Amino acid sequence: MRSRPIGFLLSALAGAALAFGGTATASAHPSATPAPGSASAGDVGTADACYTWSGTLQEGSSGEAVRQLQIRVAGYPGTGNQIAIDGAFGPATKAAVQRFQAAYGLAADGIAGAQTFNKIYQLQDDDCTPVNFTYAELNRCNSDWSGGKVSAGTARANALVTMWKLQAMRHAMGDRPITVNGGFRSVSCNSAVGGAANSRHMYGHAADLGAGSQGFCALAQAARNHGFTEILGPGYPGHNDHTHVAGGSGRFWSAPSCGI
Q1: How far apart are CA 2 and CA 245, in angstroms?
Q2: For residues 46 and 116, what is the distance between their CA atoms, to the nearest angstrom?
Q3: Which residue from 106, 126, 125, 127 is spatially nearest to 116, judged by alpha carbons?
Q4: Which domain of life does the UniProt lineage start with (predicted)?
Q5: Which domains, from first to last, does the chain contain?
Q6: Could you say which of 201, 239, 242, 244 is catalytic?
């Protein structure tokens, strides 16, 4: 992980769909259907090298700007939940925005405007990763995200959501560094380390965490609040030396030594 300054160079993110299949493209210029009463573009004055929002987004809004917002608030779905990254600003997205706003001392009205976007700009780097995590940490298998159970673009996009969940978890745990020992694996990398045949590592959804200053159990317990549908830790076979967290469909939590 790292702490990095926010840059303001011109760039854009090429995104991919965050489900197990399909792709989508993210633009540096948001295309959204705002709800009635949305503010003008002038209400958000800070340009950002990764992605720049304009106006406000609220329940009823839709489009790419909403999808980009959902990625950034993916770590605030509420205990045991996971928000859809689908570009539709519904009640779950509103609640996640409210939790994000409350976490950073903003007015928690569930409406994403200048203050919310400027906080996100502070938290992200020029490649759209959160400032405390990197693509390199989430892929120690290869350089191009290929060879998994989904396309390279989808695996990389899933890893981006995982990083934003970890960023939320890090903040909730006092902004202490979280050690990431690995993430995406190709099928061959997964086989080489004896990974499960259906491992979520091969989809880009997963990360294996070191104890750090928090300890394995504290990490596993905190992960329940930040959009991770799979949590494996001490007491689960093969997981006494790390905490495994992942997104994706379904839910399976098991860290018996941690009360999970």
Answers
A1: 20
A2: 11
A3: 106
A4: Bacteria
A5: 50-123 (1.10.101.10), 132-259 (3.30.1380.10)
A6: 239
Q: Per-residue pLDDT tens for 93-138? A: 999 999 999 999 999 999 999 999 999 999 999 999 999 999 999 9
Contact at 8 Å (CB) between 229 and 251?
Answer: yes
User: What radius of gyration, in Å, describes the C-alpha atoms of the chain?
Assistant: 18
Q: How far is the C-alpha of 180 from the C-alpha of 134, rounded, in Å?
A: 10
Would you call 239 a catalytic residue per the annotation?
yes
Q: What tens digit of pLDDT does each residue of 206-219 get?
A: 999 999 999 999 99
Sign, Cα dihedral of 178, 186, 77, 11 = positive
Q: How far apart are CA 161 and CA 154, in angstroms?
A: 11
Q: At what angle do helices 152-172 and 216-223 cross, to 10 degrees?
A: 110
In this prediction, residue 49 carries a pLDDT of 87
d(CA 82, CA 96): 10
Which helix (H) or strand (E) is 62 found in, with range?
A: strand 62-63
